[in-house]
């Protein structure tokens, strides 16, 4: 038996929309952020998927906008002691892996990636343990815990080359993108 929902009932609760800021308020926030970045020896590193205003702020302050791997590489090369990573959780983890001596901050740890969520550490570890004779290849868009279990961490630009290399050596492979 079906039931019609009341119009006021929400099927999927959406987060509240941010309160729009005036141009003057935006300018004040940008000035404050720029000052704090200098004072705290920090740099803003943003992913392509972030809000264009965040990307512009990163570029205006000597930061960077790019994909997840390039973000981590930039953070490793940059002289700042603190990296502000505007992206999903695994991006901050990747920056920390490449630059363990730096402080990594993220606006939120709740920003997640479906590829990362599709490969939970517990299920992945169980699967790998059941196939100990396999070489483990994981996509870069996975958690630090999943990367730690891998023999190879790849991006889309090198995945085929690595898998072909392993195949030429007759190595059985576990390819971890999703294990749900």
Automatic annotation (TrEMBL):
GO terms under biological process: 'de novo' NAD+ biosynthetic process from L-aspartate
NAD found in the keyword field = no
Name of the molecule in the record:
quinolinate synthase
Q: Entry's Gene3D superfamilies?
A: NadA-like (3.40.50.10800)
UniProt keyword annotations, A-Z: 4Fe-4S, Iron, Iron-sulfur, Metal-binding, Pyridine nucleotide biosynthesis, Transferase
Q: State one molecular function term (GO).
A: metal ion binding
Sorted alphabetically, which Pfam families does this protein's record hold?
NadA
């Amino acid at each position: 038996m079906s039931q019609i929902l009341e119009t006021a009932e929400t099927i999927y609760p959406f987060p509240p929309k941010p309160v729009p800021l005036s141009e003057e308020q935006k300018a004040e926030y940008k000035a404050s952020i720029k000052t704090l970045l200098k004072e705290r020896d920090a740099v803003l590193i943003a992913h392509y998927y972030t809000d264009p205003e965040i990307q512009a702020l990163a570029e205006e302050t000597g930061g960077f906008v790019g994909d997840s791997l390039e973000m981590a590489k930039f953070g490793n090369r940059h002289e700042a002691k603190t990296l502000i990573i505007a992206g999903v959780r695994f991006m901050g983890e990747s920056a920390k892996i490449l630059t363990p001596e730096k402080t990594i901050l993220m606006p939120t740890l709740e920003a997640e990636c479906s590829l990362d969520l599709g490969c939970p550490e517990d299920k992945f570890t169980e699967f790998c343990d059941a196939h100990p004779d396999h070489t483990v290849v994981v996509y870069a868009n996975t958690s630090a815990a999943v990367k730690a279990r891998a023999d190879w961490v790849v991006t889309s630009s090198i995945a085929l080359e690595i898998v072909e290399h392993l195949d030429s050596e007759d190595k059985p492979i576990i390819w971890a993108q999703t294990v749900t």
